[in-house]
Amino acid sequence: MKTEAAPFRLEDYRAPAFTIDTVGLDFQLAPSATRVVATIALRPNTDEARNGRLELVGDEIVLKGLKLDGATLPESRYTATPTLLTLHDAPNRPFTLEIETLVDPAANTKLMGLYRTSGTYCTQCEAEGFRRITYFLDRPDVLAVYTTRIEAEKSDAPILLANGNPVESGDVPGTDRHFAVWHDPFPKPSYLFAMVAGDLGVITDSFTTSSGREVELRIYCEHGKEARCTYAMDALKRSMKWDEDVFGLEYDLDIFIIVAVSDFNMGAMENKGLNVFNDKYVLADPDTATDADYANVEGVIAHEYFHNWTGNRITCRDWFQLCLKEGLTVFRDQEFSSDMRSRAVKRIADVRTLQARQFPEDGGPLAHPVRPEIYHEISNFYTPTVYEKGAEVVRMLKSILGPDDFRNGMDLYVERHDGDAATIEDFLASFADATGADLTQFKLWYSQAGTPQIIARGAYDEADRTYRLTLSQSIPATPGQSDKQPMHMPIRFGLIGPNGEDMEFASVSGGRVEGDIIHLTEASQTLVFEGVGGRPVPSLLRGFSAPVRLAIDISAADLLFQVRTDADPFNRWQAAQTLAMRNLVASTTEQIAGRPAKAEPALIDALGSVLDDETLEPAFRAQVLQLPSEADIARELGQNVDPDAIAAARRELRLAISTGLGNRIERHYGSLSGAESFRPDAASAGKRALRNTLLDLLLARRSPEAIAAALAHFETANNMTDRLAALSAITQAALPERRAVLDAFHKRYQDDALVLDKWLTLEATVPASDTLDRVKALLKHPSYSPNNPNRVRALVGSFASANQTQFNRVDGAGYDFLADFALELDKRNPQTTARLLVSFRSWRALEPVRRARAEAALRRIAAAPDLSPDTLDIVTRTLA
Ligand SMILES: [Zn+2]
Asked: Which of 23, 460, 675, 811 is buried most, with the most CB atoms less than 10 Å from its CB?
């Protein structure tokens, strides 16, 4: 087994000995031999520069020439390897280095640095891709002004783009080549550099900022797909307006460009003025995109745009501070989507994602703090903890300070740190200084990993008219952290009275309570509410005000009451989920004992009352009717997990619910027409969501009538949302009819790669024993491509992460398949490989037979020679 290189530690941070003020880049583009000349103005930055040793990092770099202040440097004065350029006696004064390198974009399957995708030259530099273009001080605290000249054959690349504003372009006399020069006046780190060149289609628009400046907007895509970019353009303009209105932040360059490419490791990248997107987050039309796709396009366009301030104008000092830009920007895009759509439904969706993706990470071997303090491979830290939990920490900060003081803190942060490479300390100090708040304890959220648990116990004394609420917090041990201190948690709450409305109380003692927020700061606190007029039902953690697990001793009757009356829509949903989860956990136990599942009457009552309540928005009713997933149940059980028993219990409970709700399902389904023409707005999407949820529940019966309804739903759908929902219901029920509809779907969309991803995912997630063979066969299908990350994630990623019973087959064949696949893919694309292997993160929670087989597969990967650092890091930590 290969051993890892020494890790990077936060405590070892030191300012760079040299820094860079300006960078001139000259690209002579050619598919297999692109020449890059980087002219870098360096100067000493700390006393350490006096020793004259300058190290510039590289990655697979071929050096063709090196000049210092215009003169060729003799080889005795430097050492160059593919990963490091060392100058032995760099001057102790400002000087210029001219570095000529040769890059092979066509051979770059890692998709980091400069590469080719469908004939287009494209770059991806975050986190450490720039060093694959030239030797550099490739770290986020080196901020420079970039000027980029690109030259290429006109026929090969008629479009030439880089960061900043366009300053010059023209033909190269006597050749069939042309050039363009771009200048970005805002100093930036190298990870925000971008260059794109190719033959692309475009749509254009403009935006006038609040101070009256006109900004040109362009979205580039493959020819023929321009019409599918209009929703993204609309979302961009709404994002620009929203950031001015809500945060007072205005766009700064003359032009803003988005380019959609089909081969991309990530979702999208916020390069200054030139965002590069995975095309699945740009392209959308009714025939090919679902409502979820539209929402994702809107959210990702906003996210990358918002980085212009939180990430670009204020960047991170080092990669340990990744959450400084990501947690904050995810919070901002979530707020934007909440304002564009239904806030309650958006919150439920975000919490579902957090619980499905971040909670298992926080509870397993890959757990790490929101701000990690040690890493081997930074590319493995683009995690749900840094992004989603990071956003929850910012949301808690807003809850603790209140909206006005939160905005004051943000204003001070921008005012103080514009142009800086900042830290979490800088961020929190801005809020503390702007408001006078003491955030010392709150800061623990950035350093303590693990999902806290809160245990709540309440007792009402009728004689004294007092309600005593005891809240205890504990944080489980995580890798490298055994002892944890109590944290500052904002617990939003209400005391629901017998009439269903929140009750007033005369006074409260035992802790700080402000408005509807309890500030939990001790390991255990008992709050005494005086003057409470009746026994309350406590509604705690409203809006999911802290990313914790809440355990509360509450009866099914009180939960049902909460589903019907809670003033907080999130907690109405949560109460229904709690009822369902209790029922599912009990049913799983029954299943293992060989007894059938049965639905609790309170659960049927709760779901029925929400279904029938026409005053609630349809999207919300759909959310309540969706049971916790198999993965949610596995997480709740936490140990000795048997995915087959969970799936069977959930299937039986769905049948019992479907039968219990009776013909109310058909009645509501029938009243929601699928015939109206498609509009992507939230209200229309909500109606589709409810109708499609009801179809899925109907199909739990597997009756001939239900199957006929699902097939008709598929055939008459006039948009992708409805078509895919029917198909998903049929495949998830593993009905024999699935083969014909899957084939029909494939035939209809065989030329559309993004839709074929949906088809691959459906095929990979059928809960049937022949699915693994089908997945293996699809690896050779013409619609699959091993070099495209979207295809890999759709087929293999979905199988491993979203097919609980088949990936976790008791014979271990699912684990063996993923191990074989990963070992092969690792040779070409380590980042995508490492992300696939995250599917093993909960292996220790499995029952003993599966656990042993998963461990054997992991050990086989770990023992393979020549693993990439990315994959070695994930496997080593997963096994630790
Ligand atoms: Zn981001």
From this structure: 23
**Residue 248 Cα to ligand 1 middle (Å):** 20
Interhelix angle 556-565/601-612, nearest 10 degrees:
0
In whole angstroms, give the CA distance from residue 816 to residue 772. 11
56-83 burial by CB neighbour count: b if 16+ within 10 A, else e? bbbbebebeebebeeeebeeeebebeee
**Is 304 known to be catalytic?**
yes
Residue 371 is classified by DSSP as S
CB neighbour list of residue 115: distance below 8 Å, 6 or more residues apart: 105, 106, 108, 109, 121, 122, 123, 124, 263
Burial 519-529 (b: 16+ CB within 10 A, else e): bbeeeebebbb
CA 198 to chain centre: 29
Query: Distance between the two ends of the chain, CA-based, in angstroms?
Result: 14
- Cα of 258 from ligand 1 centre, angstroms: 15
Looking up tokens 């929101």 gives 370
pLDDT in tens, 701-750: 999 999 999 999 999 999 999 999 999 999 999 999 999 999 999 999 99
Rounded alpha-carbon distances, angstroms, from residue 469 to 509, 538, 579, 805: 11, 9, 22, 41
Percent of residues in the chain assigned helix, strand, coil, to nearest 5: 45, 20, 35
- For the chain, how many residues are written? 880
3-state secondary structure of 752: coil
Give the closest residue to 506 by CA, choosing from 464, 540, 542: 464
Q: What Rg value do the Cα atoms of the chain yield, rounded?
A: 28
User: How far, in Å, from the CA of 247 to the mean position of ligand 1?
Assistant: 18
Instruction: For 834-874, write each residue's pLDDT tens digit.
Output: 999 999 999 999 999 999 999 999 999 999 999 999 999 99
Catalytic residue among 304, 377, 392, 652: 304
- CB distance 399 to 442 below 8 Å: no
- Rounded to the nearest whole angstrom, what is the distance from the C-alpha of residue 380 to the centroid of ligand 1? 15
Q: What is the 3-state secondary structure (H, E, C) of 808-836?
A: CCCCCHHHHHHHHHHHHHCCCCHHHHHHH
